[in-house]
Every structure is written in structure tokens, then in C-alpha cells.
Amino acid sequence: MEMTLDIAVETTSSSRIHEVDFDNIQFGRSFSDHQYIVDFDGENWVNPRVVPYGKVEMSPAISAIHYGQSIFEGMKAYKDREGNAQLFRPLENWKRLNRSARRMGMQEIPEEFFMEGLRTLLETDSAWIPSKPGSSLYLRPFMFATDDFIGVRPSSTYTFMIFSCPVNAYYNQPLKVKAETHYIRAAEGGVGAAKCAGNYGSVMMPAKKAQDEGYSQIMWLDAREHQYIEETGTTNLFIRIGDKLITPSTEKGTILEGITRDSIIQLVKHWGWDFEERPISIHEVRDAFKNGTLKEIFASGTAATVAQIELIHFEGEDIQLGGLDTWEWYGKVRLAMEQIKTGQIEDQFNWIYKL
Ligand SMILES: *Cc1c(COP(=O)(O)O)cnc(C)c1O
């Protein structure tokens, strides 16, 4: 893409890169040296800039804090075998950010302010992209409402930012999840499909409760009947019953449309697997477990990559899967996704974006 924007770059005089132990990275704890910022002043996106990572000044009255107009994305940069930086489907993140913006009554961001900011930030912090297998630079684009006005109405001003963190895979253990029959994450007509901050805030308490009971995550069920499987709140879900792969359909707008999910769907269709995108109830999964046809369950997301789910707790019973080392479909999907993202196999879907 042509450079169309003039982005001011102020580099740090003291890089913190030597403080990071790249062999032992904890997810989301160390931040690269710089951040990208651009403001919407009510009429235009103005003053795109890359500055040293750090605090941003804001009024205590900004409406993001009080009324929750706050959305984000999550994406990863990798190094290919020659050490060049590359991104996985970044335009999908840009499009989804704007879908979230529309649902939340926020300002959409033009492609160049998203993509050129991303590119300039990555050029400035390219030394922060890890090259060790399984690690990457996690990028966090986000937008929040900045009007300092406490009347309730959509903000007229916004800030969009990107910062980044070197990371390893989010989960390194198979997950145990609790199918939640009391609390809900999203309802039809609500904001479940938007990547908005409030979707996370509202499930902190039930998720903490589940963690205290020994589960890594909640498996969210639909709000109306508490039986159709949705997602975990950070990942989408795939379930293998017999020789069919099933993922919950997103048409009700209660499930976040993961880019990893979409990529896996395209892959398995290309491979010719028996695949269905449809409502799937926890009862169907439990029945399949009881009759021995439940084979594999896995979660998908940018942070989590592809992760095994070994146990679902549902109404006092454990649906517990064994033979984790032999999960063929999980293994194939995970490997292919990894190899495509790092340029080890041909990118036949045109998913890789070279910087
Ligand atoms: C981001 C997210 C996912 C995963 O989406 P990817 O694009 O694959 O990273 C799943 N569920 C929720 C609620 C999310 O916010």
C-alpha cells in the first residue's frame, strides 16, 4: 500500500527491550517501546503519531469511562523465516473494529489511519517481534470516547490507539470449562458480536467464580434457553462428533465472529471435511459423550491460537475427554494455522500481509 499519511514519529531515548526475558514472556505484562495515537476531533481524524509507550492524559469526565463507548481488537505480528514482519488478516481486524464502532454508536476509522498506524508502529518497534516458535507480538488496537461531558449521548470525539506486547501462546494447558446455566454473556439484540469492553466487564465476576471452582473458562450458553453453546468469552468453539466438525452459528448476533474461527472454517471446507455451522446444544454434546461419539473440542482465538478443551462441567456432571495426544483434527488445524501465520507453508488463502 502507498504511504498516504504523514505520521509523526517520536522515538524513545531509552529502549526497555533489554529488560524483557524473551524466553519467559508472561502474556500482556511487558509493552514494547512505542504506541500509536490518532484523535477524532468531531470532524476529522487528526494528528496521527507514534510516541514512546506511556500514560495518556484524559479528563475524568470522558464518556468511555462513564458510559462505556470503548472497543478493541487483538492481532499478532510474526516474523517469517527470513526475519521479515508479517501480519495475519489485519484488514479483517480493521473491518471488525468498524462493525463494533457502528454497533456502539462510535466513529468508524478509515483504513489508512488503522493500517498506516499499524505499519509505522511495527516499523518503529520491529525489534520487539519475537522470532521464537510459538511467540509473536500481540497488538492491541482500541478506540474510546473522549468527550468530557456527562450527559448521555454518543461522544463526538474519540481516540484510537495501538500498543503491543511480545507474547507466547495464551494457554499452554488443555482447558476445563464450566457450562454456565445462570449467568449470561449476550442476548439477541445486544452487543455480543461487538468487541466492546463491556462484554468483558460484565463477565469478570462469573468467570472469577468459575476459576475459583477450578475451571479455566466459562462456556457461555444462549440467554433464552440456557442450552445452546455460544463461546467462552475470549474464544470460539469447535466440536467434533463422529467425523463431523461443528461450530455454533453466529446469526443471532450473540457470538463474536472470530477471525481465527473464520480461518478454520475456510481451512476445513478447503480440506473437504464434513463441517456444519449451526446451533448446537449442550445436551447434544452430553449425549454424544455418553454414546461415545464426542471426539474432540477445541477453542480458537488470536490470543489462545487453537487450544484443547478436555472437560466441560455441566449441571453437576463432567464431560471429560481423554486421549488428548491423539486428537487428530485439533492437531491438523492447530499446525496448519501456525504454519500459515509464520510462513512455513504456502499462503493459498492470501491471509498473510507483509509489511
Ligand atoms: C476476540 C474474541 C474472540 C476471538 O476472535 P479472534 O478474531 O479469533 O481473535 C472470541 N470471542 C470473543 C468474545 C472475543 O472478544
Labels describing this entry:
single chain; 355 residues; alpha+beta; D-amino Acid Aminotransferase, Chain A, domain 1; D-amino Acid Aminotransferase, Chain A, domain 2; nine-stranded mixed β-sheet; eight-stranded mixed β-sheet; globular; binds pyridoxal-5'-phosphate
Question: Would you kindly provide a written description of the structure presented here, covering whatever features stand out?
Answer:
Strands 1, 2, 3, 4, 5, 6, 7, 8 and 17 form a 9-stranded mixed sheet that branches. Strands 9, 10, 11, 12, 13, 14, 15 and 16 form an 8-stranded mixed sheet that branches. The protein has 2 domains: 8-168, D-amino Acid Aminotransferase, Chain A, domain 1 (2-Layer Sandwich), CATH 3.30.470.10; 175-341, D-amino Acid Aminotransferase, Chain A, domain 2, CATH 3.20.10.10. It has 8 helices and 17 strands. The N and C termini lie close together (9 Å). The chain has helices at residues 63-67, 90-103, 111-124, 197-201, 204-212, 259-271, 282-290, 328-341, and strands at 8-9, 34-40, 45-52, 70-72, 75-79, 85-88, 136-145, 158-167, 175-179, 217-219, 236-241, 244-247, 275-277, 294-301, 305-314, 317-320, 352-354. The protein binds pyridoxal-5'-phosphate. Pyridoxal-5'-phosphate binds at residues 74, 195, 231, 233-236, 256, 258-261, 300-302.
